[in-house]
Amino acid sequence: MESIPNYTRAQVLIDALPYIQKYNNKILVVKYGGNAMTNAMLKDAVMTDIVLLSLVGVKVVLVHGGGPEISDMLKRLQIESRFIDGLRYTDSDTIDVVKMVLAGKVNKELVQRLAHHGGTAIGLCGIDGGMLKAERAEGTEGQDLGYVGDIVSVNTKPITDALANGNIPVIATVATDDDGNTYNINADTAAARIAAELGAENLILMTDIAGLLRDKSDPSTLIPEVNVSDVPFLKRQGIISGGMIPKIDCCVEAVRRGVSKTVIIDGRVPHSILIEILSSEGIGTQFK
């Protein structure tokens, strides 16, 4: 790799300084998913971004999904994967696998990867310390989704305790109700609610697209900024449609609950988190 002149290195750091100051001691919630979770190079880029931000004083909270890993384990166990409105139907066998894969395999692998890159992370799930309380969710037309949950409350203490001790909390999105039932929670929804309850400065949702596009087939039509009041109009126009609807609804909900800024970014771009946080241009689509 071509070496970078020392003056250029210094200039990069000087340019980043205002953004480092802006986010110092502030909370950044990152929802980690999509291709960035399955591509080895992108995994390492995400982990190094998070460790770097943590070391310069940003309080990073990592909320993760794990759909492909869950599907793979269900296939190995010969349990059928079924989806309703984009949500995984979760029967009693499936919720056991969700707990095992999300709170076990995926969560601990992320903790290990952060440690490998010099970070100090602690793995948590929504069950720990009663962090996420949920109730049974229904499909858009009242369909039974099994053990899929809607969050009813968030206890932020396990997260703030981890941050106060200098750890990066890595959160798997499973939750319980008062009767001890376990629920699978959509990771975008959980990240948005956690960010709101923490009073986060920024919520970043990592996706497999550049952001919100006026024309889905043309990346050059990226809309860099959207006011939440314009979202219903964009839905009526069909610009917000399909799988983008629930993601953008999460961004809107987070902003309305007090998160300063929410952004959908392209997780396929190496170091997209740093580009978003440490530059004036940012990346993806910001909601405010």
Outline the secondary-structure elements.
Elements: H1 6-23, E1 27-32, H2 40-55, E2 59-64, H3 67-76, E3 83-84, E4 87-88, H4 92-116, E5 121-125, E6 132-138, E7 144-154, H5 157-164, E8 168-172, E9 174-176, E10 182-184, H6 187-198, E11 202-207, E12 225-226, H7 231-237, H8 244-256, E13 261-266, H9 272-277, E14 285-287
Parallel strand pairs: 1-2, 1-11, 2-8, 5-8, 11-13, 12-14
Antiparallel strand pairs: 3-4, 6-7, 9-10, 13-14
SSE string, helices as H and strands as E: HEHEHEEHEEEHEEEHEEHHEHE
Strand content: 15-25%
User: How many H/I helical runs?
Assistant: 9
> Largest sheet, if any?
8 strands, mixed
What is the rounded Rg? 19 Å
Provide the residue-averaged pLDDT.
90
Structural class: alpha/beta
Strand order of the largest sheet: 5-8-2-1-11-13-14-12
Shape: globular
N/C terminus separation: 39 Å
The level of helicity is 25-40%
- Beta-strand segment tally: 14
> Ranges with pLDDT <50 over ≥5 residues?
none
Which features characterize this protein?
alpha/beta; eight-stranded mixed β-sheet; 9 helices; 288 residues; two-stranded antiparallel ribbon
Report on the structure:
The protein has 288 residues and is of the alpha/beta class. It is built from nine helices and 14 strands. It has helices spanning 6-23, 40-55, 67-76, 92-116, 157-164, 187-198, 231-237, 244-256, 272-277; strands at 27-32, 59-64, 83-84, 87-88, 121-125, 132-138, 144-154, 168-172, 174-176, 182-184, 202-207, 225-226, 261-266, 285-287. The strands form four sheets. Strands 5-8-2-1-11-13-14-12 form an eight-stranded mixed beta sheet, sandwiched between helices. Strands 3-4 form a two-stranded antiparallel sheet. Helix 3 crosses helix 4 and helix 6 runs parallel beside helix 8 (244-256). The longest helix has 25 residues, at 92-116. It is globular, with a radius of gyration of 19 Å. The model has no long low-confidence stretch (mean pLDDT 90).
